[in-house]
Amino acid sequence: MPSFLTPSNLLILFVAVTLIVNVIGWQRDRKRLIALRDETERLRHSADQAMDGILSDVAGRKEAERARHDTEQQLTSLVRNIPGVSFRCQVDEDWTMLFMSDAALTLTGYSPKEFVSQGRSFASLIHPDDRERLSGVVRDAQQAQRSYSVEYRIRHRDGHELWVWENAEVMFSEENGESWIDGVLLDVTETKLRTAEFESTLNAIGRVLSVIEFDMDGNILSANDNALKMIGYELDEVRGHSHRMFCDPAYADSRAYRDFWQRLGQGEFDAGEYKRYAKNGRPIWIQASYNPILDADGRPFKVVKLATDVSVRKEMEVALRDAKDRAERAAAAKTTFLANMSHEIRTPMNAVIGFTELLLDTPLDARQRGHLETVHQSARSLLGLLNDILDTAKLEKGVVELEYVDFSLRELCLDIASSLRLSAQAKNLPLEMDYAPGMGEFFKGDPLRIRQVLVNLLGNAIKFTERGSVRLSISQENEMVHLAIHDTGLGIAPDRIGKIFDRFAQADPSMTRRYGGTGLGTSIARQLVDLMGGKISVESELGVGSVFHVHLPLLQGEDILTLPAAANDDLPPLRILIADDVEQNVELLVIALGKLGHHVVSVDDGAKAVDAACNNRFDVILMDVQMPVLDGLAATRLIREHESVYRLAAVPIIALTASVQAEDRHATESAGMQGFASKPVEIGALVTEIARVVGMNPARVIPAADLPRPLPPESQDAEPAEAAQADNRAIDHEQGGFVWGSADALNLAIRRFLAAHADASTQLATQWNQRDLTAMGALAHRITGAAGNLALPALHDLAGQLEHALKHNELDAVPVLLSTIEGAFEAIRQTVDPMAGTAAAAPDARAAPDLARNAVQVCARRVIEALHRGALDDGALADLARTLRDHGWTARAASLEAAIADFDFDRAEGLLQPLLAERVTVEE
């Protein structure tokens, strides 16, 4: 036996092997751990040594300790992760803490240690207003031996308040009789604020809206007071009942109603206006939204309806709709009324104006002519008022259409100024025009509407200006043409400027009584300017004057000039059928057309017109649109049908109508009419239309370069001092030369005037002695107008004063004025007589032997162009008169000179137009 194998060493080896074996076993199954405790005591007996040991198994105790440690760790982790503060406290006034989780620091700003071991009282943090309530809740829970939940406020260490929710239970130990509280504290400040906001929102909604809750089958769960008031029920009367009770039975049984609830069941929102029925079947209109409310799984479990009673609004909408319908019917009736009134007023006016013009062409004494001119002027004024009203109606209805043609803006403005100059001169007002140097002349636009705007504004300026001047200035501002109308008139008060463009509005309500008019001129101007894409504005100072600004977007046009259609007298004798049921209209047309050499047949209804047209051959038919038995449109259709069946050439038919509505013109075209003439009928315009439809000499467009133009005057402005001096002169040669084109033409016209009014002073004296004030006023008016046109300022002023005195019954001034007027006539005679030889020789000086047709037309064009400006090219007129006489047109030359002498430029132009025809004949 080896020496080291002693009993003691063997014992040690046994213990070591056992330990190793046990450790290996624990490593193998990981289920059991054996801990050995070695208590050895060496026993020494004689020479041998011995070791005694005790082995104890402590694995169970170690396992229990480890389990307890694990449990403590789990509990610590759970407490740490609880959303809030876990605590245990004594049931005392200070809420003395026995334990608090680490979350206390976040909730209160104090550490758990400060509460548990340093004596910090939790009760000191509780809001004073909440302490008594909290103590009562705890007492009740303690007595009932149950848990409790309560919300209260605490103050954080930094001073701000927060709401906490406490859920706890009072515990009791039977062993020692002690009690304590175990619980959790949660910060619910944000939730509390959100809840308060939500509740306030719900309360606000509830105060304003009707709220009804339904289950998913449509049964009523609840309703607020607004809803109950709206439907007229008590809550017990509707709770548990179906939504169908508020619906029309037919709708409740429909597929649409089932689909409605099906969509809500799928969580879809629905809103709109609905007709529902309240208690006792009372219909109501509501604006409502149906809002499905979803549970935590996203499934709808009820529907909240928010509604507002819109019955009153619905009634208003219905009332407004009815009012709109009535207004539209009234507007349609107004349009029809205007069309009818147009016909009814224009028809008798046609006779008044037409027969007055016929009578004015006959020999009359001065008194008769004065009366007829008054009638004629009054009828024209009435027609102007009617046209204003009809223009307003057309603009309101939006039926005014613009045309875009090339035109001369300079010529247009000169023509307007010329046409209004006599009105201005009658009030001793200079009418000036300032066309900006270097500005283009030709533009593209609607010259008719531009003329209408300028005539309205210039006419108003003259009407409301008693002294000073009126001026039209034209300039270019970028891409806009600026037309400015200046006057030194009454001005407009600041509080009226904003209304000056309103319909039927004037600067002063007394204007209508004092000056007349409809108050539509500026309104029509504004609407037309708006229609053309422009702007209109006004500057004015009361008692100083006004400036109306018109800006129009006119494009540059081509350099061309359009001449009017053929003249009246060149039509060959035509067979004309007139169909009109108004006897005066027929009589007027028969006389007027008969004088022009036409053979006229008349009928008084459409059926007779059809019969006459189908059994006779006419060159043209004048067809009234509104007639008994058969109207003009139906009659035209029957005539066209007859011509189609028998393959006859269509006879031209011209519509005669007092209507000015665009749709009426379209209706005549649709019926087969080729022409259109408005009543009151202008004979010249009617004959021109006849010439057009029968294919004679249509309007021609001639390049402007082919027409010789006199240079425009550099300026029409005159200094006030010069104007005052001119008023004392017998003849204003500068102004007269501009108007008439030359001094020779002016002197010739003045001599003709003196010849025509040689006994004017005697006539006035005789009429004064007979106290025939009406005849005196008419003669004075004619002298005033002629003197103004002839640049005779002294006579113009005196005759105007006489006219004013007679009109306003200021008769004391008449004898002096009569004497002064005779002196003015004599001054004019003395001024003209020295130049008589020069004027008489003018035609011979310009004579040219045997002028060719082209020369005749060039002269005629020059004269027409001058007439359009209200002036006269004396040289062209002299050459033209000589040539006409050389070619045998003596009567035509005499008629032309007579028309010029009478200042009847329209008739003069009518006599000139045939000279522009392709062929010029010498027949008289």
UniProtKB/TrEMBL annotation:
Q: Give all 4-aspartylphosphate modified positions.
A: 624
- What's the protein's topology in the membrane? Multi-pass membrane protein
Chemical reaction(s) catalysed: ATP + protein L-histidine = ADP + protein N-phospho-L-histidine
Q: Which UniProt keywords apply?
A: ATP-binding, Cell membrane, Kinase, Membrane, Nucleotide-binding, Phosphoprotein, Signal, Transferase, Transmembrane, Transmembrane helix, Two-component regulatory system, Virulence
Q: Which parts of the sequence belong to the Response regulatory domain?
A: 575-694
> Which EC class heads this enzyme's classification?
transferase
Question: For the HPt domain, which residue ranges apply?
Answer: 742-835
Q: How does it assemble?
A: At low DSF concentrations, interacts with RpfF.
UniProt subcellular location: Cell membrane
E.C. number, please? 2.7.13.3
From which source organism is this entry?
Answer: Pigmentiphaga aceris
Identify residues that carry Phosphohistidine.
781
PROSITE patterns from the entry? HIS_KIN, HPT, PAC, PAS, RESPONSE_REGULATORY
- The name this protein goes by in its record: Sensory/regulatory protein RpfC
